[in-house]
Amino acid sequence: MTAVAKTRRDIVTLARQLIGFESTTGNVAQIEACLSFVEEYLSEVGPIHLKQYRSNGVPSVIAEFDHSKTHDLLMIGHLDVVLGSPEQYEPKIDGDRLIGRGANDMKGQVAALLVLMKNLATLDPLPNVAIALTFDEEVGGDNGAKYLVDREGYRPKFVITPDGGGDETWEIVHAEKGVRHVRVTCPGKAAHAAYSWTGENAVTKLLDMHHAFVAEFPPLDSEIEYWHPTCTLSKIEGGTSANSVPATASVTLDIRLVEAAQHDWVERLLTTHFPGCQIETLTACHPVNTPADHDEVVRFTKVLEVCTGQEPLVRHSHGASDLEPFARAGIPGIDVGIIGGDVHGPGEWASLDSLVVLHDTLYAFITNERKSQ
């Protein structure tokens, strides 16, 4: 069996085994079983050192060749998945497609990372690289990636997360919007709806404030691909009955930002447009802004182009990933998208060929070679 065929076989086998774990948030037994499986696989590779961390009961594991927190490259993946139907945890292969919950988000990619570490372990000297595997990316990453950066002090020189991908094109995401989730609660005055003038309707009062707030944001404009701050009213609550004037009302806002300084801008707008209201920040995430011409981005792009035979799409993303805490610490990184689709959907899939290419590209990038073995 050739090295390429063995790599493909090992990735497919591991990916199918990983998909079999129902490692959703709160499913402690399955998360622990998945963690044990990964640690057992890695522990069989002599030069690899494992470090397990826990934050609020949520595990994460680092696999490395030395005892360091300043690796040249840290590759980060997550093994938690969103809830799926029972049959989605029984992976299927249809031609080049690996189908199942987490195939593309991102157990297929984690399988490629595990095989990569095993193959890198044969090198002399060993590279100063590591993988970090977490179990809470789907719910914000506070106990995974953020914990590793903020509490354990990991400061790699560069970070890659191969999280997700598109149907046809390899993608390199070098910039991601920051996120701010805010709940605004507005007081009113209760009254019988038949005598509404004796009360103060908290719902209409809050909506008027919200309209003025949203008017401060740039209009949606497809010509600039929406690469500007946006605000979405994602939830509204108020009122207790059809015949009562609401005494309180609240809205939850999803605000996306391009630059870190825009958090201060949003704070000023909230204070200005929601006087007398309670303002609660639920989530505040830093934008990722690694320059597209950063040396490592350019180098990885060239290696990926050689390994795929096509020019990857280098772009920005409106979503967020586990790059966020590293960006907040001033560490550059990219999100690499393989070929796959229907993420979080009933037919979630990943291209098996692209998982092998991901392995080969990372191997070449780490070893400064144009192709893998």
Can you put this structure into words, describing what you see?
The chain is an alpha+beta fold and 373 residues long. It contains nine helices and 19 strands. Strands 1, 2, 3, 4, 5, 6, 7, 8, 9, 16, 17, 18 and 19 form a 13-stranded mixed beta sheet that branches. The chain has a four-stranded antiparallel beta sheet with strand order 12-14-10-15. It has a two-stranded antiparallel sheet with strand order 11-13. The radius of gyration is 23 Å and the shape is elongated. The two termini are 13 Å apart.
Helix and strand string, N-terminal first? HHEEEEEHEHEEEEEHEEEHEEHEHEEH
Number of helices: 9
Per the principal axes of the C-alpha atoms, what is the gross shape? elongated
- Strand portion: 25-35%
Q: Roughly how much helix do the residues carry, as a percent range?
A: 25-40%
Query: How many strands, what sense, and barrel or not for the largest sheet?
Result: 13 strands, mixed
| Unreliable spans | none
- Distance between the ends: 13 Å
- What structural class results from the helix and strand content? alpha+beta
Q: What is the average per-residue confidence, as pLDDT, rounded to a whole number?
A: 94
Rg computed from alpha carbons, rounded to a whole number of angstroms: 23 Å
Number of strands: 19
